[in-house]
Design brief:
The complex is a heterodimer of chains A (about 650) and B (about 550).
Chain A (H helix, E strand, L loop, with lengths): L7 E8 L8 E7 L3 E6 L7 E5 L3 E6 L7 E7 L4 E6 L2 H14 L20 H9 L3 H7 L7 E4 L15 E4 L4 H9 L8 E5 L6 E5 L11 H12 L7 E5 L3 H8 L14 E5 L5 H15 L6 H11 L1 H22 L3 E4 L6 H13 L6 H14 L4 H4 L13 H15 L8 H13 L10 H7 L1 H4 L3 H7 L33 H4 L12 H25 L7 H4 L6 H6 L9 H4 L23 H13 L22 E2 L12
Parallel strand pairs in A: 11-14, 12-13, 12-14
Antiparallel strand pairs in A: 1-2, 1-7, 2-3, 3-4, 4-15, 5-6, 6-7, 8-9, 10-11
Helix pairs in contact in A: 4-5, 7-8, 9-10, 9-13, 10-11, 10-13, 13-14
Chain B lengths: L8 H7 L7 E8 L6 E7 L3 E6 L6 E6 L3 E10 L12 H6 L1 E9 L4 E7 L1 H14 L29 H7 L7 E4 L15 E4 L4 H10 L7 E6 L4 E5 L13 H10 L6 E5 L3 H9 L13 E5 L5 H15 L6 H11 L1 H21 L3 E5 L6 H13 L6 H14 L4 H4 L16 H15 L8 H10 L13 H7 L1 H4 L3 H5 L2 H4 L27 H4 L4 H25 L1
Parallel strand pairs in B: 11-14, 12-13, 12-14
Antiparallel strand pairs in B: 1-2, 1-7, 2-3, 3-4, 5-6, 6-7, 8-9, 10-11
Helix pairs in contact in B: 8-9, 10-11, 10-14, 11-12, 11-14, 14-15
GO molecular function (chain A): phosphatidylinositol-3,5-bisphosphate phosphatase activity; phosphatidylinositol-3-phosphate phosphatase activity
Membrane topology (chain A): Peripheral membrane protein
Keywords (chain A): Coiled coil, Cytoplasm, Hydrolase, Lipid metabolism
Amino acid sequence: MEFIRLPKVENVKLLDRVSPRRSRVGTLYLTATHTIFVENEAGVRNETWVLHSLVCSLEKQAATSSGYPLLIHCKNFQVLHFAIPREQECQDVHLSLQRLQPVKPSYEELYCFSYKPNVDDEERQNEWDFMNLKADYSRMGLPNAHWKLSPANRNYKVSDTYPADLFVPESATPPVIVGSSKFRSRGRFPTLSYYSKENHAAICRSSQPLSGFSARCLEDEQMLEAILRSNPCSDFMYVVDTRPKLNAIANRAAGKGYENEDNYSNIKFQFIGIENIHVMRNSQQKMLEVCELRSPSMSDFLEGLESSGWLKHIKAVLDAGIFITKAVAEEGVSVLVHCSDGWDRTAQVCSVACVLLDPYYRTLQGLMVLIEKDWISFGHKFSHRCNHLVGDPKEVSPVIDQFLECVWQLMEQFPCAFEFNERFLITIHSHIYSCQYGNFIGNNQRERIQLGVHQRTHSLWSYLWTNRTDYINPLYRPDHSQTQGLLRPSTAPYCFKFWRGLYNRFDQGIHPRQSVEDYLRTIQEETQQLEEQLASHKQVNFKLPLIMSEAAPFDKSPTAWTLSHDLRLANTPQDYTGGFITSSPSQPKAPDSSGLILLPQDLNQTSIFSLSNSSDPESGIADLSCRSPLSEDSTRDPDSDEAVYSAA
Amino acid sequence: MCIMRQGHKEELMEFSEHIKTANVEDVVLHQPLHPPSRGTLCITGHHLLFSDREENSTRQILLLLRNIDAIEKSVENLLGYSSLFSKADYSKRISGSSGTITVKCKDLRVLQLDIPGMEQCLNIAHSIETLSCLNDVSEMYPFFYRPSDLSSQDQWGLSSSEKYYSEHKELHKRWRLSSVNRDYSVCPSYPPAVIVPKDIDDDTLKKVAKFRQSGRFPVLCYYHRKNGMVIMRGGQPLTGANRKRCREDELLLQAVIDSSDKGYIIDTRSSQQVQQARMTGGGFESKSSYSCWKRLHRQMEKGKALQESLIKLVEACGDESQNMDRWLSKLENSKWLSHVQTALSTAGLLAECVERDGHSVLVHGSEGTDCTLLVSTLAQLIMDPCCRTLEGFLALLEREWVQAGHPFQLRCAHSAYSHVRLQQESPVFLLLLDCVWQLWRQFPLALGFSEALLLRLATEAYFSNYGTFLCNNDQERCALGVKEKTYCLFHSLLKPTEKEHYTNPLYEPTDLAIWPSVHPQSLQLWRGFFLRWTPQTRHLEEAQEEIRNMVIEWGKVALS
């Protein structure tokens, strides 16, 4: 590749931000798609892979004693701090990376178009067919007597940023739709996002009306009237403008604005006050700076977190979602939600409300459907917001991050209510930015069709579904009380936490050293296997000892589990400012498999053994390297990255 | 109807002078997580009893008066102001009046009692105010508590220096058990038996005691089996302004380490603070006199500053405003999490010296009864797997807090709500439990006990049916006959019926040290304690129940 001036640099240092003593020396490789760092340490095969498309900034710093520092910031919040021995090499790596990325000049060069897993075309088509939004609408009970599928936008003529298939009220005629769309920014007329079968209340979404100071539009008024009438149980509807009032008023001067209650019959108008994309971008930037502080004090951290305002914004989004949820579920009133263009705050608020309202969206499949529906199909501008392409830096904003974080905050409040785990959210987040899959390429459905995304790229959803066992929350039970019906979260400020798992994801030193979730998953799998074995054992009924392979699942008892999870107690020396801290080697022990014959008494023995676990001092300490969901392309870290140290 | 099963006639007599109204009907109780309920309120010498008479099954709420940290009362006259009424209406007016008592508890619960009748309300309030603050230990409830399922013949306590010494045979070569303090005359706050270097005789110890604050001469509190290093703790040396020396003290410390070796002294005060301490007779081990010992200073907050930190944090948690910025700045301003961070990192430093660098360490601050114990306890949890079981942890607390002379009576007299002028109150023990909780969060499989245990201990230290946390030291407990006349909390926690609740279902013992991360991102507010009475905590408890059930089911299947 002509961009790469220097494919390989030896003796590069990869500095650890959290614990400087854990810095590693190795070789840096540049390939067409990845930057790869391979540690030199004998016997340790530790690789760090970074996709070029995830890089968001490169920074050369003044030379230090350890070399010429090169800082790489990634969109998944990984920060790589290299020290390169010679200035020229640093220069060359910097230049090469600049050319390779950070931002591609055109869609064609995005990674998804060159990412070729071994999958044939038919399978690829199946991947894309896995996601079917029509099925979700029929799950809601649509079409029905009140709502119909409208062909109005079939060829993206009415609104080029809307999807082709849209649900509108039964009484909304094509002229009303077209008329209303002409009165709305970017033609984004009011259309259905969610419908509640139980009480006919609906969540609709649109962009702002072009009302200016006094303009009216009969068709738009008829459109809202139609939405109101499609809910026979209620005699008014809410119109929620998610912007701060001041912003909405300012828009009036530009011929846009908000609905005048006097012109629309029976609407209740409400401002919510979520800040715009620029405020959010700056806020996240400030928060990330706090995350990157070197050994901050508690006060530095809390003050920084507060002044970033990030959690305040997350709370605002959740508050808005709760408002809509209450309107729909408790009052049975339909809601029309909009912001300016109706693709950022509107998407956030509608999807948060869906998560609160409908247990389905709290399942693995449901969340994927929800993102497909309210974000991808309704034209959230992923390529602009996530900086997939060279573009206006002012278009970049972590709007989808905020949605994912709202879901995470809810998961923290309701640990048993979600079928998926934190890893699922983080994996989705990474792939929104990585451009490895076609799902998030482009800014709307029309662009994706033009790019032939379905024909030329792969789908993340099917990948996630295939690997779903990695993303299951072991505490989820469909029949648990937390799972049922409406979620009623508290939005007291103390309920909002800093999301360490995402924003400090790659700083291994600061995460819990053991994972309850992994442990429970193992137990769960084992319980299942044991139950199956017991069942089959009853059938076999004392025939003969079964062959070993059938008994093998016993190896997956906590005994086996500990084999794959060595304790990584590596810690940050500056934490306590002493020497550096011990990690002991994991001592793989051979599970005594000779006893694994399915005779009742042997079964008993094995079970007691696995319960007591007395012979394994290492048990129960989970390695969190598996936290990294992008393990196949982000970090390869099969062994402890810490040299084995036995106490002095 | 309000004579309680624990109530003694004798008890009622003793406190009757403080109880003008013992019984009020038609009281409405508001408590967190429950709808208001109407019932009868009784007050006895030690309890507030509320029985709900609305349902057939009478629900009773029994509150130890000692749990009450503060009350606020307001009375209102339903018929308006009196000038309009003639004297004849006076009694009618009283009966038409009512009052409200807000009860703020040391377990951070806030209750409200609506009491009909102004006079009754004032009487009840007065009784609560008086009886909840009685300072005579021998009148406290543990001396009256008679549980049916614990016999008083049960052995009192789980651990002691003697037991520790006999369990660690490796110690015997270089250490001995001294009974120099058998009558508490050398150090009033030490137990009768302590572990000291073998080469140091009792006469030397007596001289050292005179040179250390409160007579707290350095004693062994932990032996690290892996490398034979130890942790010692004591009070500060009384070097004073003119840099007094004590030959015996120097000998004692020298006897701890090999002549070629080096030891560390972790002082829980800053180097500036120790210089100031010299002006008031305290001081530090100077390099010239203790050439083999290296001092490390870590400034840890204690006393009033810590109490105020707790007060601010509890206030922040009770702030109903929905303002995010205010919450974060109040949380920051309370400094509680900073104290957690400092405590854990000082303990990490101590453990690092012992486990990683292989040196013995002496810990002290000024008195050696607060932060010193905090740090040595946490370090033992980090290093020693034996301390991480339920029994091991309770034994550790008994040795390092109860017997080592943490003045529970003074420190836990009041908590965050009290209006009383603060004296010696300081939530050092609560800070310990918070730090242990942080460890538990970071190593959810490595500790044998559950969060429920930490929550229970966090309240038992302030008010209890048991005698374990009574008094300030062993001498006081001995004088009052605590071990003979009250029951031991630790034994009760280990009863088969209770034990399961306090065990961690995920416990998988590990021999390795568990090094906590002390990054701000790694430390969290202890919601289970500070936000215990909010509905959100209920969801987290449900998750814990779910975990317990999964493990039980797995166990059943595996055994079947």
